[in-house]
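Issue: copy button drops trailing tokens. Both records pasted manually instead:
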Amino acid sequence: MEPEMDDINRHIGARLRLLRGKLHLSREKVGKWLDVSHQQIRNYEKGTNRLTADALFVLSREMKVDPGFFFEGLFFGPHSESSLTDQAAASYIAESSSFPESSRLDEAFARIRSRQQRLLAVRLVEAVAETEADGMRRGYGSSAPPV
């Protein structure tokens, strides 16, 4: 079952709220980028108002994310269940902020303008995580074997 427009608007709004929170941006600041009030940003985040394509473009440019970020997690087709809910977004924030280093990593990542460089950073973190997992499987405890 495909998501309805209201589901899509709520999903995009939740992604905006998630990213705004991670970047420590006020609704006022985001509103200035779009020339709208902070109340309008709240309406976008709740999904009661729809963000236009040009507004999504401005937001992605200013927040330094690919425009597709706002659609990540939206599923279409017979195997989809639902879009990202407020609860899922909140759990993502709580989960990602459970390590003190995560906010530093998020902030540094947000400053990388080059998509290619961001992908390299992701690959690096994935490689480190895989090394950690390999060490655990081999019985080295909580870290990889010494080099």
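Record 2 (pasted manually too):
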Amino acid sequence: MVFDKKYSDEVRRLAVERVRQRRLEEPENRSIVREVAEEFEVGPQSLRKWLTRYDDGSYDYDPVPGSVTLAVSADGHGDGWEPRAATAGRQERRTGQRELLSRIDELEHQIAVLQEDNRSLTRVVSLLADQLRVATTNGVQIPDSTVRHTPRA
């Protein structure tokens, strides 16, 4: 059986935006999620999950050009329907994401350089250890302060 979406993307977007609006208008109201869930006839836990995805940026709620959303009217009750304009917050988040991706690229490059340096140093140490073995097997005495001796049983 194929899983069918219970709620459309438009319902999700409108419900999330309504919660965000009401949180700005009524910061002391702790039942906003429940009330908006009833208003849009969605499950409160689903709405909480959508809000979490919106907040962490894992679900994109950007509008399709020409779409409409619930807008706050002059009296502040959010009961008017108006075309939705792009918000500055989303633009800032996108800019922040670009900066993070750029920083990740820089760090990945630094990691690659450090790994190559580590490989080079490992080769050098290996060569020095080989030279030390050759020197000790050919009867050349190396000062005790240079080499750690392990006692033989």
